[in-house]
Amino acid sequence: MTSVLVSGASVAGPTTASWLARAGHDVTVVERADSLRDEGQNIDVRGAAREVLRRMGLEEAALAHGTGEQGTVLLGEGGRELARFPASTDDTTGPTAELEILRGRLGQLLFEHTQDDVAYRFGDQIAALDQDPDGVDVTFLSGKEERYDLVVLADGVNSRSRDLVLPDAPRRYLGMVIAYLTIPRIDDDTDWWRWYVAGQGRGVNLRPDDTGTQRAMLNLMTDVRGIDVLDRDAQVTLLRRAFAGAGWQTDRILAELDDAPMYLEDLSQIHLDRWSVGRVVLTGDAAWCATPVSGIGTTLALSGAYTLAACLAAHDDHRAAFADYDARMRPFVEKGQSLPPGTPGLANPQTDLGRKVLGTALKLAASPVAKKLGTALGRFGNPPADEYELPAWP
Ligand SMILES: Cc1cc2nc3c(=O)[nH]c(=O)nc-3n(C[C@H](O)[C@H](O)[C@H](O)COP(=O)(O)OP(=O)(O)OC[C@H]3O[C@@H](n4cnc5c(N)ncnc54)[C@H](O)[C@@H]3O)c2cc1C
């Protein structure tokens, strides 16, 4: 039996832990937050990742906890409808996937599925890693010191533990900030994802959930970096200024900014040419964040976590396992990270002309002809989730 420390208890961490425990390893998950985090909004589980949930016996539960989103409707000036994309009836296509679930809900399902087989430790994190050919000495922020055979870093795009083994990971900022809020639902709300193209690089979104509230997103194209690390008051002031007069339902969302649960991120991709250093290996967003605009981040996390565990189960030597994992996942990750040209600026245009061009493009993208041709427009919101075959469990 090998002892494995997994850092991060969101999607990639518990999934890796589950499969490693199944292979007979002794697994501990350390999570920086004091308890399971329930923030976040609607995420898609597609293609290979649906299969991972299926193999874990969790697909039905995940579908039962879906957000009920019926599809995506894009709105232009004055809230006028530009295009409509009904939810998929399969597990790969369209901006609204068949399996849409709140991130916190998926995290909870994965946690409950694993908590009897895996030791969870909340409110702590890795402070130092010191490895030799036989193992990894881990010092935690709490002062605890332990030795493990392997360490898996699954602690997200801003992973600090990644810096301990691969400092200055190449990062590509997309020039967009998203604020996610949970706001009260009103009678006029629908079960569609309504995406208002507000101009001046702004997008205002409302999406249904399965908890009786609405999930709002404020998208802002900006060259200013560091907004994500400002304090909440400063973020609220900035968002109020940036979205003043944007129209449609913006004022309703701005009115909730002081009190609503909020999570704000500055979108960036991680591009590493290796995902392991000795006995330490990365997975999920920590390894290859593709960002929410890719529509495939959670799919990559679930598929990657399973693949890593399957490769470790298939090889006696961790080096061979990590090489196999890299070879299998890299083409899929590269496809997932490769965004259509102009993303995300084209979907959040600055000028009136940009809004008009987007309106025309969306009408085309929503047409059956464009979909059949599989043009770049028809691929709107349709990431390559089915272009990966999971390894068989050895
Ligand atoms: C709070 C939150 C809200 C999100 N909301 C959305 C959303 O609305 N839409 C969307 O598309 N994607 C969202 N995401 C991102 C989405 O979950 C991921 O893109 C995807 O599911 C991959 O998951 P992951 O497990 O690799 O990373 P993440 O989901 O980012 O999880 C990383 C986990 O590691 C923990 N962690 C961070 N640093 C450390 C550390 N040093 N030590 C130990 N633990 C650490 C974090 O608290 C978190 O639980 C959100 C992520 C988080 C953390």
UniProtKB/TrEMBL annotation:
Domain FAD-binding: 2-333
GO MF term list: FAD binding
InterPro entries noted in UniProt: FAD-bd, FAD/NAD-bd_sf, FAD_aromatic-hydroxylase
SUPFAM superfamilies per UniProt: FAD/NAD(P)-binding domain
Pfam family name, one: FAD_binding_3
Source organism, top-level taxon: Bacteria
Name of the protein in its database record: 2-polyprenyl-6-methoxyphenol hydroxylase
Source organism: Klenkia taihuensis
